[in-house]
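worker-03 picked up job from queue 'complexes'. Input manifest follows; two sequence lines, order preserved.
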Amino acid sequence: MFKDLDPILHSQLRLAVISLLISLKEAEFTYIREETNATAGNLSVQINKLKEAGYIEVIKQFKDNYPQTICRITTAGFKAFEDYVKSLQTYLSVKK
Amino acid sequence: MTEEKKLTEKESLEIITSMITRAKCAYDETGVSALMWGIIVVFCSLVTFFNDYLHWQWLNYVWLLTAAAVIPQVVIAIRERRRRRYKSYDSVTMSAIWISFGVGLLLFSYFAGLYNVPHAESVYLMFYGIPTFTTGMMTNFKPMTWGGIACWVICIISFYVHFPDTMLLTAIAAIIAWFIPGLMLRAKYLQLKKENV
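worker-03 finished. Artifact:
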């Protein structure tokens, strides 16, 4: 039987965020917003969902007197992404 | 990018590929460090070469410039770190490689000074090749990969050449390994900056 695709990751923006963070050690919110072409509000909501699932870590700090939000993928996030890709491969190989 | 859209498996795979590619292309080196070190090493090598004819005592200390250049290098590194809005695994590894190179060079200079190591210039050239080649390979920036290889080829040649001609070889290596790639990186960076305005 097929394993269900992780509903947290199986969403356009959340998957884009995780896919971007998987290759980087950390990234600022503004950088993620530019790379995903998302609106700040939408991105903020999706980042919160990823954070609540324990897939990313969000660090809020100040840089040159301006607030800065840094996102970093967690070990659970890496694992979830790996599982998601494996499930995806299973689906795609059966569909061929 | 909107959240509500229902994804197919194929679309998921496309998103993953596209975002990973974007992150891989995120290397945005300004070229300032490569240019600075290229100029300094070429300058010091040529001064040492001509001083073999001039015999001006104080010019023997010209290589101290490389030690002094560590200060602007640290300032550049801090400024670039503040400017960057992401940190890649590659950039962390490269920083570690260049720091190791700097420490290795410093230790070797100390021992070379103490024990008058023969063919020290060749050993320096071998050192220059290591981080240059690695950086080129990691960032897929071919001029630097070739620059690193050029350092090793020139290192072999330098074994058969005597001082002060080895200084001319060092200058050539610095031009190929750092100055030219630095110019190219700078031009690319300025072009990208212009496009993003």
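worker-03 released lock.
Chain A has a mean pLDDT of 88.
The first helix of chain A runs from residue 12 to 22.
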